[in-house]
């Protein structure tokens, strides 16, 4: 029997507790989970209480390092498909608190927005999901399928202590979690995203020879050599191009060199951010950088060394994936404007679910990505409410009412 998504929408809209939604978002934002250093344990304790009250089962903490905690749990039935909802509890540093309009962990409600670090990226999405489940239960809508929640640590440092751990555990257990689809709740303005960039963070060091600056000729200036490296990097002719994400990018992010004004510097170091689009690989990008350095070594006697600091592969699913169609049908039921699936410019934990676990994952959540990692980060309450309704209708559409 076909599900009447319009009726589901009407029911969950009637039962959505908007005041509770705002309170949940504020309470979670007020828990400081800055990464680095990383401390998700208090947020996990807060979330665990709410999930228990909502009837989640099989709640389990995963703690690969002290206080670096992720939480998993199940809600719904067992006679239907399984949907993973993945979101991260950690946030980036707030920076200078005096630069903020309101204290960054006060979660101040003002002019229809909640202000604070993590409001958009992505604690607001957790509140929307909790409110969606609460509304479904208040409406008496029971689902045959299962929602498997992954509230994870460490996404802001590429997820090595969070989603990566959960995926490895799932792959290593005969009864580990398998799913038919997944949602990664990053801020997308509720537009479904089907592709995300990867990244390679690298360090390049040029080596020279020190000398007195009054007689520089015996020396080799490592900063001058690095200038040649930067020039070559900025001239790289990227040939890859993704229809949703555009071309790859490369940014020289930091530079350090020299000891004193009257010394020829014998060492200079840069770090760089190389963003990858689907179709590229981390190894391919590394080889590209090594090729630049090899050419400069031959042509300009540049002694340069490359070190990869961190890396994450890009990810993508087909736009016609059934989960994308479910999201679009749910958006239509809510009366949201039709939008084509898009691409997420940053990296996300969806890559672990797609590439390692083989689960088609849509990136979808309330909030504007332009707010993420900014001073005065905020999220509109209206968008959290729309997110809650959208999540509720998606759950009903995918997990099927009994």
Structural account:
By secondary structure, this protein is an alpha/beta fold. Helices cover 34% and strands 24% of the residues. It is built from ten helices and 16 strands. The protein has helices spanning 5-15, 18-29, 41-53, 119-138, 163-172, 222-234, 282-300, 322-333, 350-356, 381-399, and strands spanning 57-65, 68-76, 82-88, 108-110, 113-115, 146-152, 181-184, 193-196, 198-207, 249-257, 267-276, 304-312, 315-316, 342-344, 361-363, 378-380. The strands form four sheets. A six-stranded mixed sheet has the order 1-2-6-3-7-15, with helices on both faces. Helix 1 (5-15) packs across helix 10. The termini are close together. The relative contact order is 0.21.
SSE blueprint:
Blueprint: H1 5-15, H2 18-29, H3 41-53, E1 57-65, E2 68-76, E3 82-88, E4 108-110, E5 113-115, H4 119-138, E6 146-152, H5 163-172, E7 181-184, E8 193-196, E9 198-207, H6 222-234, E10 249-257, E11 267-276, H7 282-300, E12 304-312, E13 315-316, H8 322-333, E14 342-344, H9 350-356, E15 361-363, E16 378-380, H10 381-399
Parallel strand pairs: 3-6, 3-7, 7-15, 8-14
Antiparallel strand pairs: 1-2, 2-6, 4-5, 5-16, 8-13, 9-11, 9-12, 10-11
Give a brief description:
This protein is α/β, with parallel strands linked by helices and 402 residues long. It has helices at 5-15, 18-29, 41-53, 119-138, 163-172, 222-234, 282-300, 322-333, 350-356, 381-399, and strands at residues 57-65, 68-76, 82-88, 108-110, 113-115, 146-152, 181-184, 193-196, 198-207, 249-257, 267-276, 304-312, 315-316, 342-344, 361-363, 378-380.
């Amino acid at each position: 029997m076909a599900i009447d998504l319009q009726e589901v929408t009407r029911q969950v809209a009637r039962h959505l507790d908007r005041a509770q939604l705002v309170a949940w978002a504020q309470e979670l934002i007020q828990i400081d989970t800055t990464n680095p250093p990383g401390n998700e344990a208090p947020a996990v304790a807060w979330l665990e209480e709410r999930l228990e009250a909502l009837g989640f089962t099989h709640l389990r903490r995963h703690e690969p390092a002290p206080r670096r905690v992720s939480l998993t749990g199940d809600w719904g039935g067992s006679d239907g498909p399984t949907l993973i909802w993945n979101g991260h509890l950690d946030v980036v540093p707030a920076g200078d608190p005096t630069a903020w309009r309101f204290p960054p962990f006060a979660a101040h409600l003002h002019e229809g927005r909640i202000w604070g670090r993590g409001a958009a990226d992505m604690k607001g999405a957790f509140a929307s999901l909790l409110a969606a489940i609460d509304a479904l239960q208040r409406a008496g809508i029971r689902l045959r399928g299962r929602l498997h929640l992954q509230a994870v640590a460490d996404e802001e440092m590429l997820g090595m202590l969070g989603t990566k751990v959960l995926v490895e555990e799932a792959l290593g257990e005969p009864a580990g979690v398998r799913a038919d689809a997944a949602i990664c709740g990053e801020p997308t303005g509720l537009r479904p995203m089907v592709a995300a960039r990867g990244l390679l963070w690298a360090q390049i060091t040029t080596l020279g020879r020190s000398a007195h600056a009054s007689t520089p000729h015996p020396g080799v200036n490592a900063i001058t050599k690095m200038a040649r490296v930067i020039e070559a990097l900025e001239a790289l002719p990227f040939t890859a191009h993704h229809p949703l994400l555009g071309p790859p990018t490369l940014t020289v992010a930091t530079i350090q060199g020299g000891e004193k004004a009257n010394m020829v510097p014998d060492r200079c170091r840069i770090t760089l951010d190389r963003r990858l689009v689907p179709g590229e690989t981390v190894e391919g990008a590394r080889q590209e950088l090594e090729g630049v350095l090899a050419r400069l070594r031959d042509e300009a006697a540049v002694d340069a060394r490359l070190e990869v600091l961190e890396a994450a592969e890009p990810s993508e699913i087909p736009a016609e994936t059934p989960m994308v169609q479910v999201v679009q049908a749910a958006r239509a039921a809510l009366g949201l404007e039709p939008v084509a699936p898009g691409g997420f410019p940053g990296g996300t934990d969806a890559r672990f679910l797609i590439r390692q676990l083989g689960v088609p994952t849509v990136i979808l959540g309330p909030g504007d990505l332009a707010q993420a990692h900014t001073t005065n980060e905020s999220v509109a309450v209206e968008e959290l409410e729309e997110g809650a309704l959208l999540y509720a209708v998606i759950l009903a559409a995918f997990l099927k009412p009994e």
